[in-house]
Design brief:
Distance between the termini: 46 Å
Strand content: under 5%
Number of domains: 1
Number of helices: 10
Structural class: mainly alpha
CATH topology: Ribonucleotide Reductase, subunit A
Radius of gyration: 18 Å
Number of strands: 0
Helix content: over 70%
């Protein structure tokens, strides 16, 4: 079979190709088949001092919170999706988010956390919990476009930006775990930007409603963003550029506040 370039296709053919389980299998096979729990068994653990270990545990607890939000959000969006391609894509995203949660929980276990649920409850960023509640409320209210915007644009953009920065500053095992997750986040973000962009163009998405959602969620997301970079040990001089990356990704949809 000839290699297919999805971006050469029309919208309907593009969705048939890229929102399929076949496309998903090809996308994830390279970094799942040889990496049980997100990293290769041969990757050597780097010794962490007590402070580094504690900061990493806090970071991973918040990653688990974010991935749980996306897992619960995506599972609810399967039912709300307006067509079969969107339903299938959301089903692949449910699997991705469950996998992310699994590998982060395993990393916590590697670090000696015996009760991850209690640790996550103790360390979760209040602003992230607030965001999770807001996202799930959008899903519960069957507000498809707003929920996709919150989850696949705002949340995924933040995670994609933070995970990339953390991977560049992390121990070898955590970095390898994050790079596999990043590949998935890029795909989720691509769906969000494409779907919302089309909705704004054809009028099926309400621009003023999405601006309202962004206004409601932006402050909590930026608090989470800054705290996550701090916990991950990202140098302060790298943060302004990362903040711009996040804001520019959201602004690409033409919804500056």
């Amino acid at each position: 079979m000839d290699e297919l370039e999805p971006h050469s296709l029309g919208d309907e053919e593009f969705d048939d190709e890229t929102h399929s389980f076949e496309f998903w299998f090809g996308a994830v096979e390279g970094y799942l088949s040889d990496r049980p729990y997100g990293h290769r068994p041969a990757t050597v653990e780097e010794p962490l001092d007590k402070r580094e270990r504690d900061r990493l545990i806090t970071t991973l607890c918040n990653y688990c919170t974010g991935e749980t939000a996306a897992l619960e959000g995506a599972s609810g969006l399967v039912r709300l999706a307006p067509n079969h391609n969107a339903k299938i894509f959301m089903a692949t995203q449910v699997v991705d988010e469950a996998r992310h949660l699994e590998v982060f929980l395993r990393r916590l276990a590697d670090l000696g956390v015996s009760d991850p649920d209690a640790e996550i409850a103790r360390r979760a960023n209040p602003a992230l919990l607030e965001f999770k509640a807001a996202l799930l409320a959008l899903v519960g209210n069957e507000d498809w476009s707003a929920a996709v915007f919150a989850q696949n644009v705002i949340l995924e953009t933040m995670e994609y930006t933070v995970f990339r920065a953390h991977a560049d500053n992390a121990d070898p095992v955590t970095a390898e775990v994050l790079r596999g997750v990043i590949s998935d986040e890029r795909r989720h973000l691509g769906f969000g930007e494409t779907h919302i962009g089309r909705g704004l163009a054809d009028g099926s998405a309400d621009r003023s409603r999405l601006q309202e959602v962004r206004g409601d969620l932006e402050a909590m997301v930026l608090r989470v963003f800054e705290d996550a970079l701090d916990d991950a040990g990202v140098p302060p001089d790298e943060r302004p550029e990362l903040g711009r990356d996040y804001l520019e990704a959201v602004d690409r949809l033409g919804m500056a506040l």
